[in-house]
Amino acid sequence: MDHRNQTVLVTGAGSGIGDSFAREAARRGSDLVLVARRAERLEALAAELTATHGTTVEIIPMDLGGPEAAAELVAEVDRRGIEVTALVNNAGFGDHGLVHEQDPARLQEMVQLNVGTLVGLSRAFLPRLRAGGCYLVNVASLAAYQPIPELAVYAATKAFVLSFTEALWHETKGTDLRVLCLSPGLTGTEFLEVAGEVAAGGTSMMQTPEQVVDTAMRTLDGRSTPSVVSGALNRVTANLHRFFPRRLGIEVIARVTASRPPAVAATSSR
């Protein structure tokens, strides 16, 4: 796959996996459109990538958590005359807690960002990408493969992303567009620093954002496949549910999340 002469739009580009996607795309010769809430982070990253790689970088500071966010972002891209040829839907977040105790507005925002905006952007850019685009990557999570008590809504949104993206993969067969669902596990991002999760154990399965992005890019460069789980141990974990009764799997994961609350959501980025 030729990554030169591409323009890659990355959401959640202000930190973590989104930041790493932007850096890798620039290293491979692509121009960029970076979207996140914090303008100062986007400005710093854009200046660095332009200086290092000579790439053209547009920044669009925007909160994608609103119901009209996808349409507003597409309108801004069109207003600037940018021709997007690749899309990385990375923006998302997760909250830990019992559903009946969580803020309803916060849950709705999670569903909107993780699902609604992702679908909206995918739908808006798909006709253009199908006609001559490079790739569409939707970032899910290891949480997509298992219902997770106390991360119920987050895991459900990521299960949606997995199912949706794998279906898109089939719908775009016969075109030059590569569609991929990327599912990271525990990843050393800003989320972990905020949550204080690093000291709670489980770091043997932790990957860096760079490792996660490397998995995605190597997969895109190889034989077309609908989805990939980043990390060998994570791939084993993603398939464990096939060997146990569903009830037992839910009981086991409930104990894990009770002892290490935010870990599965640690790949989130806005």
Account of the protein in words:
This is SDR family oxidoreductase. The protein has a seven-stranded parallel beta sheet with strand order 3-2-1-4-5-6-7, sandwiched between helices. It has a single domain (7-265), classed as NAD(P)-binding Rossmann-like Domain (Rossmann fold, 3-Layer(aba) Sandwich), CATH 3.40.50.720. The model is unreliable at 191-202 and 262-266 (pLDDT under 50). Helix content is 47%, strand content 13%. The chain has nine helices and seven strands; from the N terminus they run E-H-E-H-E-H-E-H-E-H-E-H-H-E-H-H. Strand 1, helix 1 and strand 2 form a beta-alpha-beta unit. By secondary structure, it is α/β, with parallel strands linked by helices. The chain has helices spanning 16-27, 39-53, 69-79, 104-130, 152-171, 190-195, 209-221, 232-239, 246-259, and strands at 7-11, 31-36, 57-61, 86-89, 135-139, 178-183, 227-229.
